[in-house]
Amino acid sequence: MKIIVINCGSSSIKYQLFDMDSHVVLAKGGVEKIGLNGSFIKHESNGKKVTLEGEVVDHQAGIEYILGILISREHGCISDFCEINAVGHRVVHGGEKFKSSVLITDEVVKQIEECIQLAPLHNPPNLSGIYAMKSILPDVPQVGAFDTAFHQTMPEHAFMYALPYSLYTKYAIRRYGFHGTSHRYVSERAKELLGEQRTQKLITCHLGNGASVAAIINGKTVDTSMGLTPVEGLVMGTRCGDLDPGIMTYVMEREDINRTGINSLINKHSGLLGISGVSSDMRELETAAAEGNQRAQLALDMLHYRVRKYIGSYAAAMGGVDTVIFTGGIGENSDSSRYEIAKGFEFLGLEFDETKNVGVRGQEKIISKDGSKVTAIIIPTNEELMIARDTALIVGGKQ
Ligand code: ADP
Description:
This protein has 15 helices and 14 strands.
């Protein structure tokens, strides 16, 4: 069975074509700068990487471009569209409607459209991908995998905000959490690697440009750091994370900015970038800090400190922890961040092993000492594979 996984952002489309029988990624890549000058596609298949330029005006054109390259003689890996058995789409916000991945029907499309208010920047491009695929491959089943779905098991006391209850009933204002597919992938993988006993209580740290932590008991999220939107929680590349809400009105008044301005401030100009004034990118910050830039160092210290606070609070909330997982670009690659986050947790039962940790990038590896009561482990995430597996199960009628 061949499955294409599609992830549509506002000006990009990422894709991977899986052969589920041979467990091989046949092709992967992305179209970037959709609707802008200089659009291009990066495509990889049969061990060959190419970058091709071309005008891509919208998501429909982007999907046509991707499918075209997949069947092209020079760069392709299939001879006909009919070889594609199913499409899996990443959808950011499923609100309270979606607790797992689903087959996309007209009714489901309507429900995703109803969630647009909750994710006005993310759900519309996700829907554009669905509409485009439906028009080009009308007979191929499509599945939606939601970033929010895995966290739908959070209990009420964790997902409610202490605001008037009517805001929840009127507008569904509550905490949803994101990166669910990644938290789910690494938690399931940890169970395979470490066994059930060591993975009953997990803290999963997805540390990328966007970042979130989840507390998971027996495979079910009980809390996570992102909220109604992805801006809550950790210090991220350009998002501020947790904030005194009083700051918002204060800054709006003092700086005379409106809601668009404040939204842009907390989402695009804060976090690592806002504090350091250098970059939102961990590698650039690490270099700047090593060269003595104190604000770059402060940004790093704040990121590490916030993750530590979440680990401590989730261990308290769960009454202990068996395993702490690191994933995402920073979690998988930055040994110094992992060290700064996980050191000194002996009181929790976690004995970090700096020798095992140092220099490890992008590979599965235990980084706690042998015999440590709590395990620390790096597990590279694979959201696309998770979406492909869900799609195969649903299309195969097994879920
Ligand atoms: P996104 O949320 O965009 O998917 P990623 O998970 O790709 O982000 O993570 C991007 C972050 O990972 C960036 O801050 C980047 O600097 C960091 N990163 C990637 N490789 C390394 C590395 N070798 N060392 C330190 N940080 C890294």
